[in-house]
């Protein structure tokens, strides 16, 4: 099992409002765009949902949810070519919800051509996120690309020891 960070940029997508909606509506499955590591991400891996720095507000970068990855990355248009109507319907349902939270509508329109993974939310920690401003979180993630200057990427690799340490912090909350 591998660990990943899936990063959302508040200038493109209102991730906190979206996660709040999913939690309130008991919607646990979602899809995420994958911009790299598509050959490495696999079902059963764990990902931490990370909100990137919001330049309009205080720096509240951090982890707001945990997901289990359900599928290998696959483009939505491949499901259409395979005539997988169940997956197409599932994608359209989530996309219809998510479209209200997109600020970057052009990026939203391109999703069907991008590799996507299906995930299942296992924990929402919206009330007490693990903030990068927390010294313990910062220490655990030291050396991770999420702390570096890689703002354009969605997917960041996290070592097994880092992932387990973060999971322990979340479980002890």
What does this structure look like?
By secondary structure, this protein is an alpha+beta fold. It has a single domain, classed as ph1033 like domains (ph1033 like fold, Roll). The longest helix is centred in the middle third of the chain and has 14 residues.
| Secondary structure category | alpha+beta
CATH level 4 superfamily: ph1033 like domains
| Quaternary structure type | single chain
- Give the CATH architecture: Roll
Rg to the nearest angstrom? 15 Å
Instruction: Report the order of strands and helices.
Output: EHEEEEHHHEEHEH
Please outline the major beta sheet.
8 strands, mixed
CATH class term = Alpha Beta
**Low-confidence sequence ranges:** none
Strands, helices and their partners?
Blueprint: E1 3-8, H1 15-24, E2 29-33, E3 46-51, E4 62-69, E5 74-75, H2 76-81, H3 85-98, H4 105-109, E6 115-124, E7 130-131, H5 135-140, E8 155-158, H6 160-171
Parallel strand pairs: 1-3
Antiparallel strand pairs: 1-8, 2-6, 3-4, 4-6, 4-7, 5-6
Key features of this structure:
alpha+beta, eight-stranded mixed sheet, ph1033 like fold, 173 residues
Summarize this entry quickly.
This protein has helices at residues 15-24, 76-81, 85-98, 105-109, 135-140, 160-171, and strands at 3-8, 29-33, 46-51, 62-69, 74-75, 115-124, 130-131, 155-158. With 173 residues, it is of the alpha+beta class. The mean pLDDT is 89.
């Amino acid at each position: 099992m591998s660990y990943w960070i899936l990063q959302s940029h508040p200038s493109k997508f209102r991730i906190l409002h979206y996660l709040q909606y999913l939690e309130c509506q008991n919607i646990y499955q979602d899809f995420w765009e994958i911009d790299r590591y598509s050959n490495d991400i696999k079902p059963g891996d764990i990902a931490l949902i990370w909100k990137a720095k919001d330049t309009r507000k205080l720096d509240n970068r951090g982890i707001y949810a945990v997901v289990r990855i359900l599928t290998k990355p696959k483009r939505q248009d491949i499901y259409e070519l395979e005539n997988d109507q169940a997956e197409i319907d599932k994608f359209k349902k989530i996309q219809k919800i998510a479209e209200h939270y997109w600020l970057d509508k052009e990026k939203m329109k391109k999703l069907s051509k991008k590799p996507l993974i299906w995930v299942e939310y296992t924990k929402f920690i919206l009330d007490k996120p693990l903030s990068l401003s927390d010294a313990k979180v910062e220490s655990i993630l030291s050396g991770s690309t999420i702390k570096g200057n890689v703002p354009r990427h969605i997917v960041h690799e996290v070592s097994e020891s880092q992932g387990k340490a973060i999971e322990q912090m979340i479980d002890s909350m």
